[in-house]
Amino acid sequence: MLPSAVPTGLVAFASAVGLAGGMAGVVVTTVPAPASPPTTLTVVGSWVWPVEPPRVLREFEHVGRYEAGHRGVDLAASPGQPVVAVDGGTVTFAGPVAGREVVVVLHADGLRTTYEPLAPLVSSGDGVRAGQPLGTLSGPTHCATDCLHLGLRDGDRYLDPLGRLRAAAPVLLPLGRP
Predict the structure, then answer these.
(1) Would you give the DSSP letter of residue 110?
(2) For 49-99, how does the pLDDT look when each residue is reduced to its tens digit (9 = 90+)?
(3) Is the entire prediction scored with pTM above 0.85?
């Protein structure tokens, strides 16, 4: 609980989490103003989940270049829910593609992330940081239920974004056991 004398601004709380593959991650909770609810971002390496809480509806499908398949991941989200950048970079596109609003971010490592469908809050050329809102989930989606489709590309090659996002499930052990 924040004391009433805390000025408007951000207070951050961080806690370490164990992740798959031996990686370490951090869960960061920021509290904007005392009257506002906390915002939680799950951080994995330098990446954050684009929506909270992170729940995968459909995973990436490894398919050939010209084969049909799912080249990204679908994450549970609700219409109007904020969607944030997974990492810092530059917005290279924000607009309609085949009837859906899409935002594309180019990251310093040359990878591009795509987010759809989004009502964009950013424009081409904008610099963004990890956790910065890109827009809100809009429609229509290609899922049976509302979802965010997150894509990851290295040039013309599609990659699985979960390789950078998935955290290991916590394991509870009885007291007195390692």
Answers:
(1) S
(2) 999 988 999 788 777 667 666 678 999 999 999 999 999 999 999 999 988
(3) no
